[in-house]
Amino acid sequence: MRIVLLGAPGSGKGTQAAILTEDLQVPHISTGVLLRAAVEAGSELGQKAKAVMDRGELVSDDIMLGLIEERLQAEDAKGGFILDGYPRNLSQASALDVVLERIGQPLDVAIQIDVDTEQVVARIAKRAQEEGRSDDSEETVRKRMQVYQEQTAPVVDFYADKGQLTRVLGEGTIEEVNHRIRAVLQTEA
Ligand code: ADP
Predict the structure, then answer these.
(1) 167 labelled catalytic
(2) pLDDT tens digits, one per residue of 103-117
(3) Residue 53: how many CA atoms within 13 Å on its side-chain side?
């Protein structure tokens, strides 16, 4: 299965992807995780990315495309993948289509996890306390939500227009949401 997971920061994308990766036996490719690893490693890319991430803005499309292209061509992604955090704007969405076409791995489905804004803000505040991510401060979260509305929300329409989008309600328990996603995948499989 080749899946793109979409949803606002705090919508539970990462949590659901972590479960699906076990169920489907395909890698969970999270650009947030890849970037945080680069920051941790202190690479040049990581140093560039950190300041941008801490402001809640998007890392440049060039850097992201290089990162994702390389990751998608790794051996473990030959049988499918779950993309989490990419694409995050329309230009990334078109670039991804081109890459997937070129490697002969077109997308099966894009799944949008819908959660209302009040809930995601509450979830991120909780995560900030638990995990201490440096981009979970109140100000940065507000900026990330704004970036999401302005740049990422249009990606949902991009996939809808191509007939590749399914929406899933992201409220309720982690298990309930997982069941909804599984139901969608069964009809796609
Ligand atoms: P969340 O989904 O909670 O916002 P992520 O871990 O997916 O968190 O992303 C954290 C940060 O990493 C983003 O705010 C952004 O700065 C950067 N980032 C992740 N994916 C991308 C991407 N596809 N394009 C640009 N920046 C990205």
Answers:
(1) no
(2) 999 999 999 999 988
(3) 22
| Overall size of the chain counted in residues | 189
Mean pLDDT of 65-91: 96
Beta-bridge partners for 3: 82, 109
CATH architecture of 2-185: 3-Layer(aba) Sandwich (3.40)
Candidate from 6, 13, 31 with most ligand 1 atoms within 8 A of CB, to mutate = 31
For 140-175, the pLDDT digits (tens) are 888 889 999 999 999 999 999 999 999 999 999 999
Question: Is 100 in contact with 107 (CB distance < 8 Å)?
Answer: yes
Q: In sequence order, what are the residues at sequence separation of 6 or more whose Cβ sits closer than 8 angstroms to the Cβ of residue 55? A: 140, 143
Domains of the chain, by residue range, sit at 2-185
Q: How far is the CA of 148 from the centre of ligand 1 (A)?
A: 10
CB atoms within 10 A of CB 34: 20
Closest CA to 86 of 7, 142, 21, 170: 7
**Ligand 1 pocket test: which of 53, 99, 113, 146 has the largest number of ligand atoms within 8 Å of its C-beta?**
53
The residue type found at 149 is Q
pTM of the model as a whole: 0.91
Distance CA 92, CA 64 (A): 8
| Alpha-carbon dihedral sign for residues 167, 171, 176, 178 | positive
